[in-house]
Amino acid sequence: MDLEKYVTLGEDGKLKFDNNAFTADLDREKTSAINTYSANNSKKVEEEIRKKLEEEAKLSAEEKLKADREAFEAEKIAVYKELAQSKAKTKLENANLFDKTEVEAYLELVSKDEDLGKIDKLISARTKVNADYEKSLREKILSETPNPAGGNAGAPDDTGARFAKEYQAKQVAENTKTTAFSGLM
Predict the structure, then answer these.
(1) Backbone angles phi, psi at 3, to 5 degrees
(2) How far apart are CA 141 and CA 138, in angstroms?
(3) Are 6 and 21 in contact (CB under 8 A)?
(4) Closest C-alpha to 3, from 14, 11, 16, 12
(5) What's the whole-model pTM score?
(6) How far, in Å, CA of 91 to CA of 122, rounded?
(7) Among 111, 115, 95, which residue's Cα sits nearest to residue 103?
(8) Which of 12, 137, 147, 169 has CA 20 to 30 A from 157's CA?
(9) Cβ atoms of residues 16 and 8 within 8 Å
(10) How many alpha carbons lie under 13 Å from residue 168 in its C-beta half-sphere?
(11) Do 116 and 110 form a contact (C-beta atoms < 8 A)?
């Protein structure tokens, strides 16, 4: 600012300073500086806000994409689990070795196709256990069953059987042949 504009020489020869003009010009300069600063600062602030909003939008899009991927992965895992359990259920039911409650309990162990090997092992183990049990039960029953005396193994000792034996012995002794129609002729 040029101060000479505000200083004048009065009629009495003294220097006079025009405070009102100086204050008005000073206020105008301040206002102009403030307006310029505000405009420049406003542009900077707007630019910063725009950048922050773009970053937030980008992050929101990335977060949304991440959430979508996680949901897709969870759904894929659920579908694979359901498919593996379906295959395992078919194997367990076709083996005819397990009741429904056992099948349901074993299905809880299956969550992916790799677990089907466990089901195969389970089926083979159950088959072996059943075969071993059947063998030991058969041996136990046979060992506890008494052998009949003499060579007539399993022959009943009732009156009808005794009469049949006597009749056969008589026929052999007489050397005759008996048929169903021999008494009718």
Answers:
(1) -75, -20
(2) 5
(3) yes
(4) 16
(5) 0.46
(6) 10
(7) 95
(8) 137
(9) yes
(10) 6
(11) yes
